[in-house]
Amino acid sequence: MNNALVKDQILDAALIHVAFDGWSPATFEAAVQDAGIATDVAHIACPRGAIDLAIAYHLRGDADMLARFEREDVSALRYSEKVTALVRFRLEAVDGKEAVRRGTTLFALPHLAGDGAKLIWGTADAIWTALGDSSTDSNWYTKRATLSAVYSSTVLFWLGDQSENHADTWAFLKRRIEDVMRFEKVKSQVNESALLKPLLAGPKWALSFLKAPSAEARNDLPGRWNA
To answer: Does residue 46 contact residue 130 with C-beta atoms inside 8 Å?
Structure first.
């Protein structure tokens, strides 16, 4: 059986247990039993057990966000509004907050913090890629770092939001995106300033060596890349 399919089946079965036991070994074992999956097959699909399920749950939300973005007509929206819409789509892809809350707790653990940061970065990257971002220099990194911070803070606000239809969350998100737009405007003004250009020449030269990761496979290293 396909590992991805097995993982999806276990994840579906796990969600009812996550609210009580979190993304824990107990949840994983119960989900495997509920899904009728052999234990050895389950561990092949999810070597780290519930941690792999929590990661899969986050990635499923990213996929749902992108699918909705493809369906929705956002052509009339400004660029910043499209960013806002995608973050909102991502949060609205969640059926219940408890799985996200438990995931936030899980990836706050020191030995899993790297996994959590990678997932948030991946969400930000998915958003910029969906919007057709073509930057290949240091802007590729700053855009994703900035949006990762916006997304993280919005998720934390959303988890505690009890307003009707999460109105307070969407207002919070709008303010954060506006802050980013103001920052980008100031950055542009600084780059165009005749007074500051000489002072920025050194840092800009150093940053010119920073390039976005290539999407193409490399042939100058041993081994090979897998899709």
So the answer is: no
Residue 7, pLDDT score: 97
Residue-wise pLDDT for 72-84, tens only, equals 999 999 999 999 9
Residue 193's φ and ψ, nearest 5 degrees, are -70, 125
Distance separating alpha carbons of residues 117 and 136, to the nearest angstrom:
21
Q: Is the pLDDT of residue 183 over 80?
A: no
Residues 111-144 pLDDT 10s: 999 999 999 999 999 999 999 998 888 889 989 9
Give the C-alpha distances (Å, rounded to integers) separating 112 from 117, 166, 196: 9, 29, 41
Distance of CA 69 to the CA centre of its chain: 15
Under 8 Å between Cβ of 115 and 59: no
Residue 157 DSSP symbol = H
Tally: H helices and E strands in the chain = 10, 0
